[in-house]
Amino acid sequence: MIGAEGTFAPFSYHDDNDNLVGYDVEVSEALAKELGVKIKFVEVKWDSLIAGLDSDKYDLVTNQVAITAERKNMIFQFHIHTLIQQLSLKKIIQKSLK
């Protein structure tokens, strides 16, 4: 499950048919295809995005989340483009990659 806001074009937003689309969605779908896994997006308000990740409502956030000192302690992040875009994974996943 992937947390996303769905209101920040061109990264994640709704098309004319109300489908969640955008750069973050396409990158997530491409990664899932490469890994051979199925994904489901959970749309939440921006203010709840990190809290939902921390409370296990989803496993991953893809939504223009900037690194801050507080977030860096909570989550593992890797960049998918420039310094402002990251995929944010739960700390437990970071530990499994060591």
Automatic annotation (TrEMBL):
Keywords assigned by UniProt, alphabetized: Signal
Pfam families in alphabetical order: SBP_bac_3 (PF00497)
TM region(s), chain numbering: none
Domain Solute-binding protein family 3/N-terminal residue range list: 2-75
Record InterPro entries: Solute-binding_3/MltF_N
PANTHER family the record matches: ABC TRANSPORTER EXTRACELLULAR-BINDING PROTEIN YCKB-RELATED, MEMBRANE-BOUND LYTIC MUREIN TRANSGLYCOSYLASE F
Protein name (Swiss-Prot/TrEMBL): Solute-binding protein family 3/N-terminal domain-containing protein
Species whose genome carries this gene: Faecalibacillus intestinalis
